[in-house]
Design brief:
Keywords: Signal. With 437 residues, the protein is mostly beta strands. It has helices spanning 2-22, 312-317, 357-360, 386-392, 406-409; strands at 51-53, 56-57, 61-63, 68-71, 74-77, 82-85, 90-93, 100-103, 108-112, 119-123, 136-139, 150-151, 168-169, 179-187, 202-205, 212-219, 226-229, 232-236, 239-241, 248-251, 255-265, 278-280, 297-307, 325-327, 332-336, 339-341, 347-349, 363-366, 369-371, 377-379, 400-402, 410-412, 420-423. It has one domain.
Length: 437
């Protein structure tokens, strides 16, 4: 009887540990990347355009699946109009005219795709490359921490002054609704503009929390995949794949919840300037923001941030691999049950952040899985991170550390058409010892 009881207890302990570990990183009983994502978009043949989408959209308009649309130039949805896009619709961004789609303040987009019939924005070039076309910009009237409202006019250097009003964002309504983006893919966006700046795959400026943003994949963007300025945004099951710049960039007082989402970086594509999976800032210049307003705050749960290197040690020595996260002064991050794998190091805090209990309580890492990183958490330009290691290595935070290869860590990453980045539970040997060799 005693042996039977011990067997049951061991079994329950093992089951409990499995379920506890399954909670880290992206989760789901099934791989939610199936059906709607595409990790080899260069192999897709979307057909030839049958309709042209250009100029301003000033009244409610619907794009239908039976047509393939060529997006030309700077297209603005204005006059409080709604642009509705049927599931399965393909919109092809024109390379020559630096095509982009902007949903102006007060207007909305209803791009409500299906898991088996996603909406696709892609390039019209025969050989597709990062930055072939502009991207999608959604402007709302939720708050930022700027003085006054903002403008995205710099993205349109040839825009006539009469159209500048279309580029404004910001207001006082955190609950504003700019529509729906669900089961949407954005491929090869991020066109370069003047002064070395880039469009982003998806820019959300002052977007409110009633906007639905779920199951969105941005792949091969030359600019940031997801750029969020201000607003109150909830992002769920979003994917950034092989971006040249940052995967997720937050700024200007963003209040964001980012859940069950994935960023996959490649050291052979990333910008040499040191792009990251996540960059969390409250401003670019202190003079532009009102410190009586909220700074940027990100709550991130069940993220998987992974760098895919053929030879991680060699790529680190060559300077091709940077940190996964950068957190700026006057910003806060609460990161929980997430995986950071294959970076150099995992996290860097801006050097203006004083290492104190007050500041560290604003930058939380709990129930984390740090894997195969060359160091964990550091202050910028400071190689002595003993205080940070002691803080975040405290067993009360339940962070674990490992040195496992991708094939041992994730269920299936070598299948480039249908990868599975959930944790391979039975192969993981994790420890609470932060000082691993």
């Amino acid at each position: 009887m005693k042996n039977a009881t011990q067997t049951v207890l061991i079994f329950l302990l093992l089951i409990g540990n499995v379920f506890a570990q399954q909670e880290k990183g992206i989760i789901g009983a099934n791989n939610w990347l199936y059906n709607w994502t595409e990790f080899k978009p260069s192999l897709e043949d979307y057909g030839e355009p049958t309709q042209i989408l250009a100029g301003n959209i000033t009244e409610d308009t619907k794009l239908v699946k039976r047509n393939i649309y060529l997006l030309m130039g700077s297209v603005f949805v204005t006059n409080n109009a709604t642009l509705t896009i049927e599931p399965g619709t393909v919109i092809i961004g024109d390379y020559a005219s630096k095509a982009s789609l902007t949903i102006t303040k007060g207007a909305s987009i209803i791009a409500n795709g299906l898991e088996t019939d996603p909406i696709v924005f892609t390039s019209n070039r025969s050989v597709k490359r990062e930055g072939d076309w502009g991207g999608i910009i959604i402007l709302g009237d939720a708050p930022t921490n700027k003085f006054g409202n903002g403008s995205v006019a710099s993205f349109y250097p040839e825009l006539p002054p009469s159209s500048y009003a279309y580029t404004n964002y910001g207001g006082s309504n955190p609950n504003s609704n700019s529509g729906i983006l669900k089961y949407v893919r954005i491929e090869y966006a991020g066109k370069r503009i003047e002064r070395g700046n880039y469009f982003n795959g998806l820019l959300l400026a002052s977007v409110g929390k009633e906007t639905t943003l779920e199951n969105i994949m941005v792949s091969y963007s030359a600019g940031n995949s997801f750029e969020i300025w201000g607003g109150e945004v909830n992002l769920d099951k979003v994917v950034s794949y092989r971006a040249s710049s940052n995967d997720f960039a937050f700024n200007f007082g963003t209040q964001c919840e980012l859940n069950n989402s994935l960023a996959v970086r490649s050291p052979y594509i990333s910008s040499s300037s040191g792009a990251r999976c996540m960059q969390i800032l409250s401003y670019n210049n202190k003079q532009e923001v009102d410190f009586s307003k909220k700074g940027t705050s990100v709550i991130a749960k069940n993220l998987t941030l992974v760098n895919r290197s053929d030879d991680l040690s060699s790529d680190i020595k060559m300077g091709l691999v940077k940190e996964a996260l950068f957190v700026g002064e006057n910003s806060s991050l609460d990161m929980n049950k997430s995986v950071i794998s294959g970076f150099n190091p995992a996290v860097i805090l801006e050097d203006d952040i004083a290492i104190s209990q007050e500041n560290l309580e604003k930058i939380k890492f709990t129930d984390m899985y740090f894997n195969n990183c060359n160091g964990n958490i550091f202050v910028e330009n400071n190689y002595n991170n003993e205080d940070l290691e002691n803080w975040y290595g405290n067993s009360a935070f339940f962070n674990v550390y490992s040195k496992s290869q991708d094939s041992e860590t994730f269920i299936e990453v070598k299948n480039e058409r249908r990868p599975d980045f959930r944790l391979r539970i039975n192969k993981i040997i994790a420890t609470n010892d932060i000082n691993m060799d």
